[in-house]
Amino acid sequence: EKIISNHLNKIPIKKKLFVDFEGEIKSLGAWGGDFILASSPNNGIKKYFKKLGYSTIFKYDELIK
């Protein structure tokens, strides 16, 4: 993410929108912020994103069956 963001002159999504997130965030797909993958040692991932107004949130095991 850091290498690609430097090459494209784009700010990584974590630095742009989720600076206070405890964990890692990776852009998925296009760099327009369409999808992200979030990983954290804490159990509050869903709560964190819902608080910010994001309503479409999937757990890993809901996507990979």
Task: Please give a structural write-up.
It is built from four helices and two strands; from the N terminus they run ααββαα. With 65 residues, it is α+β, with helices and mostly antiparallel strands. It has a two-stranded antiparallel sheet. The model has no long low-confidence stretch (mean pLDDT 87).
Average pLDDT: 87
Tally of DSSP β-strands: 2
Strand order of the largest sheet: 1-2
Topology as a string of helices (H) and strands (E): HHEEHH
What can be said about the biggest beta sheet?
2 strands, antiparallel
- Give the helix level as a range of percent: 25-40%
* Shape summary: globular
How do you describe this structure in short?
With 65 residues, the protein is of the alpha+beta class. It has 4 helices and 2 strands; from the N terminus they run H-H-E-E-H-H.
What order do the helices and strands come in, and which of them pair?
Blueprint: H1 2-8, H2 13-17, E1 24-28, E2 35-39, H3 45-51, H4 60-63
Antiparallel strand pairs: 1-2
